[in-house]
Design a protein that fits this description.
The protein is mostly helical. The protein is 79% helix and 0% strand. Helix 1 packs antiparallel against helix 2 and helix 3 packs antiparallel against helix 4. The longest helix has 44 residues. The radius of gyration is 32 Å and the shape is rod-shaped.
Length: 174
């Protein structure tokens, strides 16, 4: 049996750690404020079932509100990014993914990396188009030479080998 290797890097994504720290800080601040309100309410109402229900509903409301807010901030951009990626896949190679000002830092970091990949992909696509144009013109030149019969078989062979060398040089350049 092959021994499994566990991951030893605990601090991987600086942006994601910062986002989680901000979420926890907000959760602690809001919960602390709510606890303060409940303690002042406890003095007025006294310990009762009603106070318990108010506390549970309050904490539930805090959890729901924070979950909606932070999930919208972290996961919300992906719907829009998915739409933008579909546009790029359909042939809009110059388009890049955009993030909003309030989007999460980890999403912004991810989008930056995807945009780097898209830039390289666009460059490859442009090179591919140039290569196809070059191949097309060379083959049309050879075809016209064959139709005209102006070149001997040895000259045609040399022309074909020259085109082959040019194509290899173009492929090595990329």
């Amino acid at each position: 049996m092959i021994p499994t290797q566990s991951r030893k890097k605990y601090f991987v994504s600086k942006e994601l750690r910062l986002s989680i720290a901000i979420m926890l800080l907000w959760a602690l601040l809001i919960t602390g404020f709510f606890t303060y309100l409940v303690s002042s309410l406890d003095e007025k109402v006294g310990s009762s079932t009603l106070l318990f229900v108010i506390i549970m509903i309050g904490y539930l409301a805090i959890v729901v509100a924070l979950s909606i807010f932070f999930s919208h901030r972290i996961l919300g951009p992906f719907k829009r990014l998915n739409t933008e990626l579909r546009l790029i896949i359909s042939g809009n190679y110059h388009k890049r993914l955009n993030v909003r000002k309030n989007d999460d830092l980890s999403v912004k970091s991810f989008v930056d990396e995807v945009n780097n990949v898209l830039s390289k992909y666009e460059g490859l696509h442009i090179n591919r188009k140039d290569l196809i144009k070059h191949i097309d013109s060379e083959i049309l030149g050879l075809l016209s030479a064959v139709r005209e019969g102006s070149k001997s078989p040895e000259e045609l062979q040399d022309s074909i080998l020259e085109v082959h060398k040019k194509l290899n040089a173009l492929l090595k350049r990329d």
